[in-house]
Amino acid sequence: MASETATVVAAAEAVVPEQTQTKKKLHGRAFYESIGSPKHIVAPMVDQSEFAWRMLSRSFLSPSERSSLLAYSPMFHARLFATDQKYRDSHFQPTRSPLGKEQPKKPSSEPAPSSRDDTPYLDGNPAIDRPLFVQFCANDPASLLAAAQLVAPHCDAVDLNLGCPQGIARKGHYGAFLQEDQALIHEMVRTLHEGLPVPVTAKIRILDTREATLAYARNVLSAGASILTVHGRRREQKGHMTGVADWGYIRYLRDNLPPETVIFANGNILQHGDVERCLEATGADGVMSAEGNLSDPGVFAEPPAPGEEGREYWRGRDGRGGWRVDAVMRRYLDILHKYVLHQDPPARRPLFLPGDDEAWIGEQAAAEAEADAEEPARKKRKKDGGGGGKEGRPTSPNLIAVQPHLFHMLRHFVSRHTDVRDALAKARMGDLANYERILAMVERRVAEGLLEYERTDGASFEADATNTAFEAKAKQAEEAKEKQQPAGGGEGAEEDEAESSAGTIRRCKRPWWVAQPIVRPLPKEAVAKGALQLSKKEKMKLEEEQNARRKVDDIVAQPQKTGGEKVEGAAELEKTTSYPVSELVAG
């Protein structure tokens, strides 16, 4: 093991580019302030926070604001990144020449001219992709340092992933599955802190108690982390068990860590308004979004004022709105054309608004019908010519990610327009011409949706057939609760939303042509639907939480004692019962 580690380190040191200038390494809040004290952060996501998506997320901000959005790279596997050139090339492209690839040495008395081109390219380009943190998962300090040394010249900080809850992290023993090994975590953070020219940061999940989470945070910070990101969910909260992130844990850390500690809060960011609510509730310095950003890359942008929506932002008769999916998809493809394929985007007509010429809508429908008629012949030609196999597939991470990004962003759209869903499913990786055809389909459907909304005075959205049975039942439950509550909602309104996703669905629901979050049912709702089977331990825990809430409800319902004293037992329950600070469901 020792020899293998030494080999990894030696290989990395041999290919780390020389620093052209020495820059003083800052730490903690001084470092945070040096990069502009960003309050909005695009989260690290496996194969999903690549350069083009970061550029798209920044594009919704004004040019002067774009550098205030901090973004993370996707999570990279440290050992593979340090030792595998192909892995590096397919994940991180900071310069024109491959990262860390040595030039062959020729036996000559004269030094051979270098053919490397270290001109900034995409990832970490100082002109367009900063500030940027690069994230790694690892369980070996030496491999982690070797990988981090390769990216240090091309980023502002290196982040250690301690929060990934997926099965692959369990199998590989990294991410959130390292939290029982606090000594190893401390060693890895310390190794980066002492061995890198840039700061180290870390992202963790909360533990079972606030006290344990505080000790965890202190361990990471004492090892040298400059910034701590805290996801307010536990390791087991994923999939149907995702539930609500507990902002109260993050507030507890804020109140019990030194004031100079820089904390980012992660979890429950579904819409733009959730950002300020999170900052206020947690006291964090910045707010990170993952799923909310995937559904709506404009989540951090301030919505335009009423009357100033233009063609990209839609606002309904009720005053609620969001970024149009055809506008977002256009921006995304334009970025891919310009930065990844190095070509001008196609000439585009202005996005449609009711009142514009509608002739193109019929022309587009006819073109789609003609393409559908030719589909059997295309399939036969493809079959006769043989499959393409893996040859010719793109290696750029920006092209590989297009299909999953569009499926996520168009989730509500394709649930209604299944022909667009099918076209996306058939799209070949890297075939931007095909994605342009899909964009044309999306633009036509959006135009038709806008016209129908105007024609029916908004009734078409209220009667939207894409509302699932779950959403319909949630709405019925919410309306029933409203009838039972006194005027004004009462103090229990926020707790009711924490108990049910109905309120969140109603708050977030937009027409299908608007980018919007995916709201998961709460775990107990998933159990009731039969979508989730709980283990005995999980059932006991859920039952205990429900019993605790019933006790609180019983006490609150009792008459209050005179002199403002609490009913017997209330004070003790306040100490032992955890109340979710936020009513949000996912993000």
Kindly describe this structure.
With about 575 residues, the protein is α/β, with parallel strands linked by helices. The protein has 3 domains: about 25-100 and about 115-230, Alpha-Beta Barrel (TIM Barrel); about 320-460, no CATH class; about 475-575, no CATH class. The chain is built from 26 helices and 10 strands. The strands form 2 sheets. An 8-stranded parallel β-barrel has the order 1-2-3-4-5-6-7-8, surrounded by 7 helices. Helix 8 packs parallel to helix 9 (about 210-220) and helix 21 (about 470-485) packs across helix 23 (about 500-510). It is an enzyme of class 1 (oxidoreductase).
Describe the SSE topology.
Layout: H1 2-15, H2 28-34, E1 40-42, H3 51-59, E2 69-77, H4 78-83, H5 85-89, E3 132-137, H6 141-151, E4 157-162, H7 167-172, H8 182-195, E5 200-205, H9 210-222, E6 227-231, H10 247-256, E7 262-266, H11 272-282, E8 286-289, H12 291-295, E9 313-315, E10 321-323, H13 325-340, H14 359-385, H15 397-400, H16 402-409, H17 411-416, H18 418-426, H19 432-455, H20 459-462, H21 469-484, H22 493-499, H23 502-508, H24 523-529, H25 536-557, H26 570-576
Parallel strand pairs: 1-2, 1-8, 2-3, 3-4, 4-5, 5-6, 6-7, 7-8
Antiparallel strand pairs: 9-10
Helix pairs in contact: 1-6, 3-13, 6-8, 8-9, 9-10, 13-19, 14-19, 21-23
